[in-house]
Amino acid sequence: MTDKVFEKTITKQFEFDEDVASVFDDMLSRSIPFYKEMQRLTINFGLKFLKESDKVYDLGCSTASTLIELSKHSPFPLELIGIDNSEAMLQRARKKCKAFGVEVKLLNEDLHKANYDDAKLIISNYTLQFIRPLQREKLVKKIYNSLQKDGIFIFCEKVISSDKVLGKQYIDEYYEFKKRQGYSEFEISQKREALENVLIPYTEEENKNMILDAGFSHCETLFKWVNFATFIAIKK
């Protein structure tokens, strides 16, 4: 379905409810530049560290697109687990997994309370940015503790610039991108308002420092387009 969530005047803050879940795949492809490329990098780099039967968790898995693609491209079976606190998202994830014949364990749980021990790969695509800073740092530490030795954490985030001039240019460039995807000025402004104080992005440097502070030995940017970035972190 086509994303028309913000064609009407908003009455609440952004949340991953039924309205959003029903159009989420379209929303992703039209709202995140190079989304498919970042997903491809996540899968390709992830597979280089994996072996048969390894556990892979996707935190905030939404409709399970990344896990489905990972399964399709993996030359060996993996134990795939998706965790999300939106039942509306998981309902669509279950239907997609069934349609593609992919076995994924889908859990409706709070990321702070869920168990994802013994993971070899943990994925988090545009999820940390929705978690309050203090809780975000605790979650990253939990991710580190849950990974096996030589495990990896691959995550995508919206980022901001520490420079005010560049920050304004980031916003302008992204605004033009969304207009090219067919979103109206009204839709763009409505979504921006709905996300106010809900999505809290860090700078690229702040994301890396948070990762290293949690104990990871290395964190690197795999891909970046203006204010969207994909990171890989390694636990030694």
UniProtKB/TrEMBL annotation:
GO terms for biological process: tRNA wobble uridine modification. Residues 56-151 form the Methyltransferase domain. S-adenosyl-L-methionine binds at residues 35, 60-62, 84-85, 110-111, 125, 192. InterPro entries: CmoA, Methyltransf_25, SAM-dependent_MTases_sf. Keywords: S-adenosyl-L-methionine, Transferase. GO terms for molecular function: carboxyl- or carbamoyltransferase activity; S-adenosyl-L-methionine binding. Its EC number is 2.1.3.-. It catalyses: prephenate + S-adenosyl-L-methionine = carboxy-S-adenosyl-L-methionine + 3-phenylpyruvate + H2O. Belongs to the class I-like SAM-binding methyltransferase superfamily. Cx-SAM synthase family. Catalyzes the conversion of S-adenosyl-L-methionine (SAM) to carboxy-S-adenosyl-L-methionine (Cx-SAM). This is Carboxy-S-adenosyl-L-methionine synthase. It comes from Halarcobacter anaerophilus. The gene is cmoA.
